[in-house]
Amino acid sequence: MNKISAACVIIGDEVLNGKINDTNSRYFAKFCFRLGIKLQEIITIGDDEQQIITTLRHLKDKYRFIITTGGIGSTHDDITYECIAKSFNLRCLLNEQCKLRMQEKSNPEGRLAPQALSDYYKMATLPAGPTVQNYYLYDDLWVPICSINKQVFIFPGIPQLFERLLNGLTPIVKSLYNLGEKDIEYVRYFVKTRMTESQLSHNLKLLQEDASKVSSEIKIGSYPHFGKGFNTISILGENKDAQYLVELMNRAIKEFDGQQISTEEEDEVSNLR
C-alpha cells in the first residue's frame, strides 16, 4: 500500500472564536480513510499572515498531500491565496481563466459597483507560477481548486462547496499518488462491550502489542459513551491484514463479552450530543 501522508489546515478566525463549527476536517478525515491516505495532522489557525505562511512552510516539508480550507473570499481577512503563495515564494496574479468563468456564470460587471467588482475579482487573484495548477471540476462552478507542487490544494471553507469539490478531486488524487483500487482501503471493525475502560485497559494493551507484531498500521482504541452503559472498541488496519483483523475482532468479542456493531451504529452513537 502507498503510504501517502496528509495534513489538513482549517483557516479562519470564525472557527477559533466559536462562531462556526468546523465540519471540513472530519469530512476530509473520512475522505482519507476511504482512499487509504494516512491523515496525520489537523491544524486550525486564524486569518493571520505570518501564521499561515509559517504553518504551510512547516507542513510542506513533512507531508505529501496537504489541503487548506477557508480564507479565499472577497473580504479584507481573506488572505489565504496570498499567504500560501508567499510560503512557496510565488506571486498572486489575476487569473484570466477564473475571471472569464466568473463573468460567464455570474455577470459581475452587470451587477456590481467598481469597488465591489474589484473585491469580487480578489477571489480570482490566485497563486501563479510553473508549479501551480488550477482544477475546474464542475461546469456550473467558477471556483477552482488551486494546487501548488501537486502537494498543496486550496479549498473554500463553505462546507457544501468543500465537500463537493473534494469528492470531485478523488480521481485526480488517485492518479497523482498512484492509488490503485486494490491498495486504497483501510478496514475497521467495532466491538460493543459493557465493560468499563479500566476493565478493558490491560487486555487492550496486550491486544495492541500482539497486533503491532503483525503491522504497525494496526491501531486498537476504546471509546466511552457516557450514560449509555457501554464502550466501543475500534480495530483498524489495512485491508491486506483483513483476515487478521477479523481474528482480533473475534478475540475482543470473546475477551470483553462484546458484540460486533456496524460503522453506522457507532457513528450514530458517537455523534450524539
UniProtKB/TrEMBL annotation:
SUPFAM superfamilies: Molybdenum cofactor biosynthesis proteins. Residues 7-176 form the MoaB/Mog domain. Gene3D superfamilies: MoaB/Mog-like domain. It comes from the Eukaryota. InterPro entries: MoaB/Mog-like_dom_sf (IPR036425), MoaB/Mog_dom (IPR001453). GO terms for molecular function: FAD diphosphatase activity. GO terms for biological process: flavin-containing compound metabolic process. This is MoaB/Mog domain-containing protein.
